[in-house]
Structure formats: C-alpha cells, structure tokens
Write a structure and sequence with these properties.
The structure holds 2 protein chains of 2 kinds.
Chain A (H helix, E strand, L loop, with lengths): L21 H32 L4 H23 L13 H11 L2 H10 L2 E4 L3 E5 L3 E6 L4 E9 L6 H14 L1 H7 L1 E7 H7 L5 H11 L1
Antiparallel strand pairs in A: 1-2, 2-3, 3-4, 4-5
Helix pairs in contact in A: 1-2, 2-7, 3-5, 5-6
Chain B lengths: L16 H16 L3 E5 L5 E4 L10 E3 L2 E3 L1
Antiparallel strand pairs in B: 1-2, 1-3
The chains are: A alpha+beta, B alpha+beta.
Chain lengths: 212, 68
C-alpha cells in the first residue's frame, strides 16, 4: 500500500478513478478479452452461416471474416500507438537528456532504451516499457499487455526527458502512475507486438522474457 | 529536467547552511512553477518530496504527468 506521503501528487487530478492495482488490471484484462470475443464471434458465426446457407454468399462471408480479424487489429494498433515516437526531428537538449536518462537506468536497460526507444522497468504489477508518450505493462501472466497513454505535461521536452519524467513518477508510486494514465488497451502480447514499430519489438520481447 | 535536457539549479552540502538555504529557496520557486521534487533511491525506486531533503545526493524536479 502506498502511503499518502508517497502517493503521486497528480492523483489529485483524477479523484474519481479507482486505483489501477493488480486486481483492477486482472478485471480489465478479462473485460477486454470478453469484449474481443463479443465482437469477433458474431462475425465468424455470420460468415460460417452465410457460407452454409448459400455458397454464393462466400464473398460476403469473407468480408465478415475480414471484419473479425481487422477490428481486433485496430484496437491493438490503438494500444501500440501509445509508445510510438511523437517527435521525428532531433530535439534540442536530447543528447543531454539522454545522458540523464542513462544515469537512471541500469546497463542493460540503457542499451535496450537506446536501441528501441523504450525503457524497461521492473514493477510490482509487472514489466513496464516506458516511452515518451505512454507505457506498456507486461503482466506476470505474460500473455497480456496493458497499454497506457500518459505523458509529462510539457510537450517541448526532449524525448529522453519525457521518458525520465514518466520513469520517476512510476518509481515514486506505481499504482498511482497507472491510475493517472489513461488505459487504452489490454490484449495478447503477440497482437500488440505486431502493431509496434519494428525497432521497438525487441523491447517487448525482452519484457516478456523477464516476466517469465 | 527541462527543455535543454536538464539544468543544475542549486548545489549544497549538509554542512553548508547558506548553500542549503539558497537551494530551498530555488526548490520553492520551482514548486510554485509546478515542478515536483523527486529523489532517486537507487534501482527502481524514487521518492516524491515536498521539502528539500538536506541529506539527499540529488533531487530531480520533474513536470507533472497526465493521461493522454
């Protein structure tokens, strides 16, 4: 339990939210799973039904199957997008910020962050991958990834500084951090991985390995 | 931490009262601007502080975070 003195000050901005703890994550993981089945199964059933009723309806059945595949992919894309780099050009101060962020990370995490843009952080809730505008949480169940949209309030900060801000907040109060962040998606790690930029995928692989 | 990467605002030692008082003043000004004081406590740990700890090796001022 986080004491009041250690609680993230930003929690005052979201007083209505329940703490995003392990129980909350399990519940939302199940809800997302059920929701995925709910909008996938009817399309599959419709496709099979149409094909059995009249093989001439095969194109429509294929379109229904495509919906059953594409809609979960769109949700996963939305989830993976929380860690996509927000700034393409080299920001002033980035090299200085990269040095400070490197000081906050261990050797392996520093190398991983430089290669992938994501900082790996071990927490009580699971393995975090912190990007400049969001974070992924790989739960110890390993198959599930929760995607959180969260950022430092100053949009002009260099990318590495934005990660460092999030990292310090996460280290101060993990549940508070997850509570302040907007939960964007929960789903299978393989589904999120497919929608991550190529250079970020090794970070998710590393988090899954550590979570085992 | 700021737009230049980071800026050293104050340096002090536990024995130097004048330097610490200056650091406390600077810390208060940054808090008024919305910055939050955080003390890194080694791997994976950090503590949010409302007052400048005299014995801390380093205090980092960060911007508040918010859901996007």
């Amino acid at each position: 339990m986080t004491s009041e003195a250690q609680a993230l000050p930003e929690l005052a901005t979201v007083p209505w939210r329940q703490p995003t703890d392990a129980r909350w994550l399990r519940r939302w993981g199940r809800i997302w799973h059920a929701w995925t089945l709910l909008y996938t199964i009817p399309f599959i059933a419709a496709a099979v039904g149409m094909f059995l009723l009249d093989p001439l309806a095969t194109p429509v059945a294929l379109a229904a199957l495509a919906h059953a595949w594409i809609i979960p992919e769109l949700y996963a894309f939305r989830g993976a997008s929380v860690v996509r780099p927000k700034v393409r050009a080299v920001a002033p101060g980035e090299s200085v910020a990269q040095g400070l962020l490197g000081d906050l990370l261990g050797h392996e995490e520093r190398e991983l962050q430089r290669r992938t843009g994501l900082a790996l952080e071990r927490g009580d809730l699971g393995l975090w991958l912190v990007g400049e505008g969001g974070a992924l949480l790989v739960t110890t169940e390993r198959r599930r990834v929760h995607c959180f949209c969260v950022a430092a309030s100053d949009s002009e900060l260099p990318p590495s500084d934005r990660i460092a801000h999030l990292l310090l907040a996460l280290r101060s109060d993990e549940v508070g951090f997850a509570t302040v962040a907007n939960h964007a998606f929960a789903g299978a790690a393989w589904r999120v991985r497919r929608r991550l930029p190529l250079q970020m995928r090794p970070a998710l692989d590393a988090a899954r390995r550590v979570a085992e | 931490m700021d737009r230049t990467g980071h800026t050293t605002l104050a340096q002090w030692t536990a024995e130097d009262d004048a330097a610490f008082a200056e650091a406390v003043r600077e810390f208060g000004e940054q808090q008024a601007l919305g910055y939050i004081g955080t003390v890194p406590d080694g791997p994976g740990k950090a503590t949010h502080v409302r007052e400048l700890p005299r014995d801390a090796d380093m205090v980092i001022l960060r911007r508040p975070i918010a859901g996007g």
